[in-house]
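Possible regression after last week's pipeline update?

I re-ran a chain I had predicted before the update to compare outputs. Posting the input and the new output here so someone can diff against the archived version. Not blocking, just want to make sure nothing changed silently.
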Amino acid sequence: MIDKKLVIWTRITAAPLKMGELYTTDKESRFSYESSYVQTGERGLGLAYPPQAFGINSIVRSRSEFFDFHPPVQSLLPPKSKRNLIRNLIMSYLHKMDIHPQVGLETDWEILTKSGHGSIGHLDVFADDHEAEKWYAARPEERLVEAKDDFGFSLKEFLTWMDNDAQALVSILGPTPSLGGAIPKIPLSIPKSGWNGLVGLPTRLGSSSDLTDIILKFEDSSSYPGIIELEKLALDVHKEAGFKVPRYWVVEINGVKALAVERFDRDQNNKPLFMESVYSLLASGSSRISHHYSATYDFIGKALDNKKIAITNDPGAAKKYLFKRLILAMLTGNGDLHLENLSFLETQGTLEFSPVYDPTPMRAYSRHDLLTPPEMTFGDYGDFSGDEMIGLESGLTRLAKNLKIQANQYREIIEDCLQVTSNYEQKINDLEYLPDLNKENLSKIHRRIYGDFNKIVD
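New output (post-update):
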């Protein structure tokens, strides 16, 4: 194959600045920082790739069936799922432009060049520097329109925000997207004061500070009825438990329920912040990480103590955060706390776990009824110690020990989570749109785990 080249820029600096270049061959991916970027002292590609440590030397990573690119770049690609809305929108655009890449690297390269800028986090990927400069120089019209069936702008305009040369005539974004996984989602902007029914295209460099970026999530009621109010319930509970959560609004657009969630990977002026998922970080440092669920919670805790890479300003607080997130996930019925649903965010020099996102109690739907994601165990839970299987209490005790959480802290965290969820079953039953069968599933799961945790602290 012919070597492929991408350039990576960022806007975490005072002005857009080229971070480096990435070359991909049939065997490996090589990234090199620009010398001018190294001198800025800013964060780089990811926490495992600090510019000050690598300088302008190539950072080489062998390609595998799981990663064609370095994990922070790979993370910019929409999931390879026929149900993913953004991936399908981009593929539709490519086909309208008569671009038909081969399945695999060719397709992902095209997707990155069209949608790898302005996405979640601090990295902007382009085909070349000219495309980067052109994109940063463009100032799309800031126009808020009523959120209705076509949002007041076409899919062409949405894709033009990602690629200034988009000329394809593509379909209008309809009111009921049926693609995109459990919750189809698209990035938009709304007034900074909050949701008022008006939406616009995502902000760009130099955009008005009167706007804030959001992710708008639609309910796929055929597959996951009631999922929007379920996510709101989970966000409410996490907020009550003392976790940082973004602002969020339950809305209805042309009869379709949706959740508008403010993006926290941007500052007050819509400037990107450094953000990296735990998945990207762990995969950058370990070849054993192949999926977003291929590490235990104990392994995450061990990474937080890494002496070579400063992952967080306060490892002790981060480990307590992780433990409490896991306890609350179990009590609320969220068996989906995987590596991509945990991220690190740097705000005003403080590097810590990001605000809570995607905490939906997916166990309400029987096909997602798992205590934790596959392979993401804790304290060897479910394994055997001699002739006895390690149960919930033993597994949590082992995890707490591995996280260096003291006995009084262990008990306090569990009791706090029990207090916050003491009326959780009533809140489930009060939901308006979640079907009765799903309410029964989730209530039964909650009652059982709540009772188990009560026995632990008795």
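Follow-up from reviewer: compared with the archived run. Residues 325 and 337 are 8 Å apart (CA to CA). Marking as no regression found.
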